[in-house]
Amino acid sequence: MATQHSRSAARIMMAPAVILLLGWMLVPLVMTLLFSFKKYLPMRGGDLGWVGFENYVRFVSSSAFWPSVSATLIVVGGVLAITIFFGVLLAILLNQPMWGQGVVRILVIAPFFVMPTVSALVWKNMFMDPTNGLFAHLWRFFGADPVSWLSEASLPSIVMIVSWQWLPFATLILLTAIQSLDSEQLEAAEMDGAPPLKRFAFITLPHLSRAITIVLLIQTIFLLAIFAEIFVTTGGAFGTRTLTYLIFQRVLESQNIGLGSAGGVYAIILANIVAIFLMRIVGKNLDA
Question: Which GO BP terms sit in this record (predicted)?
Answer without folding.
Answer: transmembrane transport
